[in-house]
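> example.struct
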């Protein structure tokens, strides 16, 4: 079974849906648009322009259709995040693990987003991106610096991936099964 099939089976088992909606949020330059493009086309391009507001893309693989909301990460667009995260199947929070200066801001924005009552209980996947860079945080350091252990009202997963190498969900090294621990 291919890696894309593994992801789809995992999503099916988690949500029991053939159609799902995911909101991708995170600070600017975290790699959200690159992730959407990797999922949709299987390719990666260095030539990305910042998302202004939001983009929506529907991707169908087999029997599963995923609507992906790619939300701008600049400060002026962060107030929109809640609106586009309401009622989604899961929130995918993308963090540039190599930009250590932005991690405290990413933590603050993440925890602010999770205080929104309308988002209560929505599963959360944290993707530490750009781990191919030497300055990237390790998974335990990212979990610690983002304060993920303190999130108790939803299922939370933290994965590391590098879009420069391949789409994170398609990497053989990635464990696609979420657990309650971050080890």
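> example.seq
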């Amino acid at each position: 079974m291919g890696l894309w099939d593994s992801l789809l089976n995992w999503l099916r088992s988690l949500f029991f849906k053939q159609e799902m909606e995911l909101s991708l949020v995170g600070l600017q330059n975290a790699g959200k648009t690159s992730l959407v493009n990797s999922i949709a086309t299987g390719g990666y391009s260095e030539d990305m322009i910042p998302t202004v507001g939001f983009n929506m893309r529907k991707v169908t693989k087999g029997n599963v259709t995923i609507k992906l909301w790619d939300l701008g990460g600049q400060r002026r667009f962060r107030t929109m995040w809640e609106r586009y995260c309401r009622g989604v199947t899961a929130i995918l929070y993308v963090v540039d693990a190599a930009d250590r200066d932005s991690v405290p801001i990413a933590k603050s924005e993440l925890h602010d987003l999770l205080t929104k009552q309308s988002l209560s209980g929505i599963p959360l996947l944290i993707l530490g991106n750009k781990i191919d860079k030497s300055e990237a945080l390790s998974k335990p350091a990212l979990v610690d610096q983002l304060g993920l252990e303190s999130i108790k009202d939803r299922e939370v997963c933290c994965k590391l991936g590098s879009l420069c190498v391949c789409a994170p969900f398609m990497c053989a090294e990635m464990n696609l099964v979420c657990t309650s621990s971050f080890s």
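> remarks
The domain at 3-170 is CATH 3.40.50.300 (Rossmann fold).
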